[in-house]
Specification:
single chain; 199 residues; alpha/beta; Cytidine Deaminase, domain 2; 7-stranded mixed barrel; 4 helices; 11 strands
Length: 199
């Protein structure tokens, strides 16, 4: 099963809610000519969106680890590193949040360097970071924007814990369309990136 999470056409100001499953593929905030659920449609309803966007694959196991970490760390923000290559994130590595705060995070440098060494040893790289927003949407906050630096291909994944609790009426396995979003930081700010969920 492949799932598309948040495509580049969606702006951070226009989050969508709900999610759906489709027999072979399901899409969450897809970009380009990918089917996606209408904002107020029933599960399984599809619509087309226009425009192309950047995408990166995200393994189901990495997503599951990130969601579990976000729930466990609440009411504080969680944070961690994304390991893979330019096209696929295969693993999520937890990091200590040195801020231990519900509104801020700071990845422990020791955890960051350990993730870099482990990734290199496995022939991969740290290609991004993730963190949670406990009571806010999965869009970059003013602090995220002010403190972000890095390469254009570095993926910033944000999880909204509040939206996770609303996913599928609280049922396990469902993630609402605006609970998980990814971005790349460019000279013009954050640019949404589509996440293609893979095995």
């Amino acid at each position: 099963m492949t799932t598309i999470l948040n495509g580049a056409e969606d702006s951070p100001q226009r989050p969508r809610d709900g999610a759906h499953r489709q027999s072979r593929r399901s899409f969450i905030n897809g970009a380009g000519d990918t089917p996606q659920r209408p904002r107020h449609g029933a599960p399984g309803s599809l619509q087309r969106s226009s425009g192309a966007g950047r995408r990166v694959q995200l393994s189901q196991s990495a997503l599951s680890d990130i969601l579990r970490h976000a729930r466990e760390e609440a009411p504080n923000e969680c944070c961690g590193l994304l390991v893979g290559d330019a096209h696929r994130i295969g693993r999520a590595v937890r990091a200590r949040n040195l801020e231990a705060s519900p509104t801020r995070y700071l990845i422990d440098p020791a955890d960051h360097f350990a993730a870099i060494r482990a990734a290199r040893a496995a022939g991969h790289a740290v290609v991004g970071a993730y963190h949670s927003h406990v009571n806010a949407m999965a869009v970059p906050s003013e602090t995220d924007v002010a403190e972000s630096t890095g390469e254009a291909d570095f993926v910033h994944l944000i999880v909204s814990v509040a939206r996770l609790h609303q996913s599928y009426g609280g049922q396990a396995g469902g993630v609402s369309e605006d609970a998980v979003r990814a971005y790349r930081f460019t000279k013009d700010g954050f640019e949404p990136v589509g996440l293609e969920l893979t095995a």
